[in-house]
Amino acid sequence: MISLLYSGNAFAFDGILISLLSIMKHNSDALKVYLLTMELSDIDENFVPIDENMRKALENACKKTNFESTVTLIDIGELYRKELLSSPNSNTFYTPYCFLRLFADRIDILPERILYLDADTMARRDISTLTDTDIEDYELAGVLDYYGDKFLKKGYINSGVLYLNLKKIKESSLFERCVELIKRKRLYLPDQNAINKFVEKKLLLPEKYNEQMAAKQDTVIQHFVSTTVWFPIVHKRKIKPWHTEKMKRKYPEFNDVLDNYASIKKGMEIKSRF
Questions:
Q1: With the CA atoms of 182, 186, 192 and 195 taken in that order, what torsion angle do they form, in degrees rounded to the nearest 10?
Q2: What is the structure's pLDDT at 230?
Q3: Could you tell me what percent of the chain has a pLDDT over 70?
Q4: Would residue 134 count as lying in a domain?
Q5: Can you point out the beta strands (E) in 38-102?
Q6: Residue 181 domain-assigned?
Q7: Distance between CA atoms of 8 and 121, rounded to whole angstroms?
Q8: In the chain, how many domains are there?
Q9: CATH classification at residue 227
Q10: 184 is in which domain, residue-wise?
Q11: Would you list the DSSP string of 151-162?
Q12: Has residue 24 got a pLDDT over 60?
């Protein structure tokens, strides 16, 4: 069994579905998937939660590979409103849904070990080589951030793929300290910077578990972050898994996953992200 954690609003559905389909392509173990979401449409009309219809669609997709798989929806809007609604970071380039994982230690139904994934990640190999990693003595395990390690802080990790030890996180109050900082101080990359500031016991993983640049032969998880292209003209490249036409041209190795995604989405009354 593999336990996975995602967070987001309704527009994250496409990315989460694609991510799960890519994982199941390489592993048939039962997946226990937990989705953190909330209703904030009074703040922004796009801040609508992942709903039951979406949860069922994700669970049905997972059950096609292993019938014991489950997808659980967790609404933590009340907790967010209480703790972070008035935060100076609540209205930035990053949506409030980025902060939801910082409440994972307060959700009793989550297992002690769980792999958090951003919705713009895709598996190229079996992720069980990551979830089999021993993190008994660590709060979390992660991969160095490609830019952050060079320009922000040595050992700075990317928060898009984090193998969490919630027992240790509770003991150290790691996430509670992150929330307190975000609550009172405006930050660049708020949740990621807070995690890097306060984490005391982290296991650095090989970059193959969160490849933020060009995929390599041993890449297990590819993270489709925005990257800078230097030649022939300097520009930002932003391609996400749900940009299916661009993906198929650049990454034909994912065509089967993307075709499966399109088949599931067809006929569903769910608004696409783009």
A1: -40
A2: 41
A3: 93
A4: yes
A5: 70-75
A6: yes
A7: 14
A8: 1
A9: 3.90.550.10
A10: 2-265
A11: HT-TTPEEEEEE
A12: yes
